[in-house]
Amino acid sequence: DFRTPMNSIIGFANIALEHPEEPAAMTDCLKKIQKSSDHLLSLINDVLDVSRIESGVVELSEEGVDLLDFADDMRSLFSGEAMRKSIVFDVDTTGLRRRCVMADRQHLGQIMVNLIGNAFKFTEPGGRVSVRLCEYGGRQEKYGAHVPEGYGRFDFIVTDTGCGMVPEFLEKLFVPFERDGLRRANPTEGTGLGMPITKNLVELLGGSIEVKSEAGRGSEFTVTLPLKLASEGDGDDPCAVGATADR
């Protein structure tokens, strides 16, 4: 995985050095070097994330989070890619009873970016990627220690109409370096660490992750987290306490 982008960088650097008088060739090589460098950096970041998680040095930071603003961030972040790939992208927050929570925004964002980015990666133009945020509205005590007093049970659901996964791969989805969801893996496509990282982060936040998928019919990931409900004085400006979802 590391050799592929590294060899590409070295190869195009050599080509550029051999054609110093050809600006067009130089520019093309530099663009390809930049693309390979970005890929290499992504691989390095994935490996470092796994290393930090496995060594137990990941620090959790709780702050006030407005889930409606968080959903808007996800909508803005992926709207450009949705337009480029001609994919219908929607974010639904109508299932939120309360929008104000205390959470680790950075790692919650990393979880959602991984899941949404993965959905876009495996969804063809003309398909759909949907994100839904909702809060369980019944009696919380039926979940026992999963939802302590003062917390709510929130689901973050990412659904796509992409290529889906074969049943055999679902059993290995969260195993590091596995990436052949349809038995046709591209050896240069990622590290197979995105899903293990996502699962580990979800568990660090006290939650769980479930997946439903069928080859040729898409996938659905559900992340369930117990999040502390924000109250006066929590965070810098968590949001209006007791507010209801109005978007």
Per-chain topology:
Blueprint: H1 3-18, H2 23-55, E1 63-66, H3 67-85, E2 88-95, E3 100-103, H4 105-121, E4 128-135, E5 151-160, H5 167-170, H6 194-204, E6 208-214, E7 218-229
Parallel strand pairs: 2-4
Antiparallel strand pairs: 1-3, 3-7, 4-5, 5-7, 6-7
**Mean pLDDT over the full residue set:** 79
Distance between the termini: 43 Å
**What characterizes the major β-sheet?**
7 strands, mixed
Calculate Rg over CA atoms: 21 Å
Number of helices: 6
Helix content: 40-55%
| Anisotropy-based shape | globular
Could you spell the SSE succession in H and E letters? HHEHEEHEEHHEE
Tell me what the structure shows:
- The protein has 247 residues and is α+β, with helices and mostly antiparallel strands.
- It has 6 helices and 7 strands.
- α2 (23-55) packs parallel to α6 and α3 (67-85) runs parallel beside α4.
- The longest helix has 33 residues, at 23-55.
- The radius of gyration is 21 Å and the shape is globular.
- It starts with a helix and ends in an 18-residue tail after the last strand.
